[in-house]
Specification:
Layout (H helix, E strand, L loop, with lengths): L1 H30 L1 H26 L3 H27 L11 E2 L2 H24 L1 E3 H28 L7 H35 L4 H13 L1 H13 L4 H29 L4 E3 L4 H17 L3 E2 L1 H20 L11
Antiparallel strand pairs: 1-4, 2-3
Length: 330
């Protein structure tokens, strides 16, 4: 019964992801891949992860919350990023490309990715956790990023006015995004719960659920949306890359910033013990991914490398027992 529920919800999320993919393309033509992928799709497809982290924090399961956030970030910049490159540059895409070309705007977005990752690491190291001061800094970083991308979208729209793109097509795009987003919001919570129940039945450890299985479930809508987009056309890979960049910036700033706020509301002062081996690995991988993005030309070998890096992280989680996770607010 649990397995059937899991499969049914996966089908529903796949359908929602298809709507998001088809809705994103016209929006990207109008406002650019950076705004569409980094802001619109990133916010919609990160909703499951927010629900997972917030609900876990409210229940006092900060180990699960931090582990899921760290695992999701690691997943995005290894398997997510690598597989997008592989799909776009092989026959798995209907219209493959030799290399994924990135715009100057995406390179700037990658700089935000690096800055947010290093600042989050520095704040966690400085106080051995996150408090309200850290939350304010992280949330301000996120809104600075949103303002930057929004300004870029306005400039792009002014420079790329297309009279052939009718208002009807744009409204259809927005409708697809709204429907897909609502379905993701409604179905992702039960999907994450079903994934955890399956893991419990299989007797998988809580750390593994937090770092590996939780992110696989909560990030599923985002990955499916990105994959469908690239399979349709390799030239659309930048939308998916921007989606992952935006989500990662989101994780490094707003998502991590919500945890100390919840801790304070529950009578604590901070979320301690953030610095752990998984957190350090995630930050190091982010630096590597940023160096890759700065090249603006993503080749197939990079896709292979980042996919193998995820395999290495999974191996470490199972065989080295990585994960010293916090148990409650300080």
């Amino acid at each position: 019964m649990i397995a059937l529920e899991f499969i049914a919800l996966l089908v529903v999320l796949t359908a929602a992801a298809a709507l998001l993919s088809y809705g994103a393309e016209p929006l990207a033509e109008r406002y650019g891949a950076n705004f569409t992928g980094s802001i619109v799709l990133a916010i919609i497809t990160t909703l499951p992860e927010y629900m997972f982290v917030i609900f876990a924090s409210i229940k006092g399961e900060y180990g699960m919350a931090v582990g899921s956030a760290v695992g999701a970030c690691t997943l995005l910049i290894t398997l997510g990023y690598g597989s997008i490159i592989l799909l776009a540059t092989t026959r798995l895409s209907r219209r493959p490309v030799k290399v994924v070309e990135l715009s100057k705007g995406t390179r700037v977005d990658a700089l935000y990715l690096l800055v947010t990752a290093l600042i989050a690491f520095g704040l966690a190291w400085e106080g051995n956790g996150f408090d309200l001061k850290d939350a304010a800094i992280l949330i301000l970083l996120f809104f600075a990023y949103v303002v930057h991308v929004a300004k870029g979208a306005v400039k792009y729209a002014r420079a790329n006015v297309d009279e052939n793109q009718s208002r009807q097509n744009l409204l259809k795009s927005i409708l697809f995004l709204l429907i897909g987003g609502v379905v993701v919001f409604v179905a992702s919570g039960p999907f994450v719960d079903s994934m955890i129940r399956v893991a419990t039945v299989l007797r998988v450890s809580p750390v593994t659920i937090a770092i590996i299985l939780g992110p696989l479930a909560s990030e599923m809508p985002e990955k499916i949306t990105a994959y469908i987009t690239v399979v349709r056309d390799g030239k659309l890979a930048e939308i998916s890359v921007c989606n992952f960049i935006g989500s990662k910036v989101n994780h490094n700033s707003l998502l991590l910033g919500t945890m100390p706020i919840i801790a304070v509301l529950q009578g604590g002062s901070s979320v301690p013990g953030i610095i752990s081996l998984p957190f350090i690995i995630m930050t190091a991988l982010t630096v590597v991914a940023t160096l890759s993005l700065s090249r603006r030309r993503l080749a197939r070998w990079e896709g292979v490398m980042f996919t193998l890096l995820y395999v290495l992280v999974v191996w470490g989680a199972f065989h080295l027992g990585i994960g010293r996770l916090p148990h409650g607010p300080g």
